[in-house]
Amino acid sequence: MITEVIRTATVHVSRYALCIGPQPVQGLHYATSPALCVIIILYFRLRKIPNIMPRLLCSLCLVLCVIGCVKTEMPSGETPQSSDRRAEADDASINIPSPLDLPPEANEEADLAALREKILAEEHAKELALIEQERQIIPFVDAPDELIPLDPQDRIWITSDRKHVVLLGRVVLREGFLELLACRVGSKEHESILSVRVKPFLVHAGLLAVNARQGQSAEFRPEFIPASGDRIDITLRWQVRSRSLSGEEEIVQHESSAQDWIWDLSSPEHAKRPMTTHWVFSGSRTYQDAAGNHRYLADETGELFGLSNFVGSILDVPIESSADNTMLQFGCFTERIPPIGTPVTIILTPVN
């Protein structure tokens, strides 16, 4: 045991003797060299002494030797306290600044601001390019030249026979749970298959223009009352580029009901069934803001064609369908949905 104590002391004293920096710990740095020699000699001597009492005596001599070396080797006229003060002064003269005390880079904030501006500019440029690309898309209908625009800016029309509302969307989701079939751009793309760049109140106005009769949004208290209004059928058309057997590229147009893209989660994954319920023109609610202005709720929420009962949706399902994530009833029928980014023509047809 004593041998282990001396071995430990040797390690510590050696550490002090090799102390990093210009000034070792005060007091010990005067005695480390002779004390280390004595400790090393006694360490090997003690290993050969069999009795415990001689070992203890040698250990006591060792301690006294170290203390004596410390006292005799300290410069004359210097006390341990004054030596400590001198060491502190030497440490202060080094004056190594802390990283926390260093001033920030002069241009750091300017660089961050420039980076933010660059990212925003790139995103804005991408958005403008996408808008321009969408403006070049011709709706996939029989007589696109005969469509009547409802707004000079937004891509929404009614047919010349006033039986259909036509608008353009883009696939933004192919997997996961759903609360909406379609939403306005920049709103609820994380839970909608389609994103539409159109002001929601124009969709409402278009349905009125084709003689659809508005009902009421769903009521939840004191008991559930489903959404009402004219039934609205939703037809989806899109094009896919493919190659024929001869190797020539051709464009194939597809058409489907919106229900075919939606998985009824009451059916198992190995035997998926599409949604069977339809939509009704419940119309989004309006409200009055603090300034007394009337607001159209769908313009705020971006909810267009709902699968969960939202009072802001323009079209809703006439059944009880919760928006609780643990009780969602619909999901993406991935196998039937075209790739992300595919342009889709959406045709709304009232069934009176």
Task: Please explain how this structure is put together.
There is one protein chain. This protein is an alpha+beta fold. It has two domains: 2-79; 131-351, no CATH class. It is 33% helix and 21% strand. The chain has helices at residues 2-17, 28-46, 52-73, 80-94, 108-135, 200-209, 297-301; strands spanning 148-149, 156-158, 165-171, 180-184, 192-196, 231-243, 249-257, 262-264, 273-274, 279-280, 286-288, 294-296, 303-306, 330-332, 343-351. Strands 1, 2, 3, 4, 5, 6, 7, 10, 13 and 15 form a ten-stranded mixed β-sheet that branches. It has a three-stranded antiparallel β-sheet with strand order 9-8-14, with no helix packed on it. The radius of gyration is 41 Å and the shape is extended. It starts with a helix and ends with a strand. Residues 11-33 and 69-75 have low confidence and may be disordered.
Characteristic terms for this protein:
15 strands; 352 residues; single chain
Which helices and strands occur, and which strands form pairs?
Blueprint: H1 2-17, H2 28-46, H3 52-73, H4 80-94, H5 108-135, E1 148-149, E2 156-158, E3 165-171, E4 180-184, E5 192-196, H6 200-209, E6 231-243, E7 249-257, E8 262-264, E9 273-274, E10 279-280, E11 286-288, E12 294-296, H7 297-301, E13 303-306, E14 330-332, E15 343-351
Parallel strand pairs: 4-5
Antiparallel strand pairs: 1-2, 2-3, 3-5, 3-15, 4-13, 6-7, 6-10, 6-15, 8-9, 8-14, 11-12
Helix pairs in contact: 1-2, 2-3
